[in-house]
Design a protein that fits this description.
By secondary structure, this protein is mostly helical. The protein is built from three helices and no strands.
Length: 104
């Protein structure tokens, strides 16, 4: 379960990028897809394996969420004509939310 925390943080950062690009539809689509996957995966795995299955489903959902968010961000880059692999993060820009109390 602890392994899922870094993935949730990564998904949150990617979600912030989608939100910053004002692409609410992609952000909503990614969130709904993740939720549907979580429910479809959680129930059978929990019934079959109990608490161990529930914990495994949290990790599987965090992996799926990260992959879905990366996929949506990549699609947004393609739509804008940007190259995903050439993107660079700015340390100064990345630090701004921390000054306002944001937690990554």
């Amino acid at each position: 379960m602890i392994w899922s925390f870094p993935l949730y943080n990564l998904s949150a950062v990617i979600g912030f990028h989608l939100q910053g690009l004002a692409d609410v539809s992609r952000l909503t689509q990614a969130s709904v897809t993740t939720t549907v996957f979580a429910v479809i995966f959680l129930i059978p795995v929990t019934i079959a394996y109990g608490l161990t299955g529930a914990i495994a489903s949290v990790l599987a959902t965090s992996i799926a969420q990260t992959l879905i968010y990366v996929f949506e961000l990549r699609r947004e880059f393609v739509t804008r004509g940007w190259k995903f692999l050439e993107a660079r993060l700015s340390g100064q820009v990345a630090a701004d939310p921390l000054r306002y109390g944001g937690i990554f």
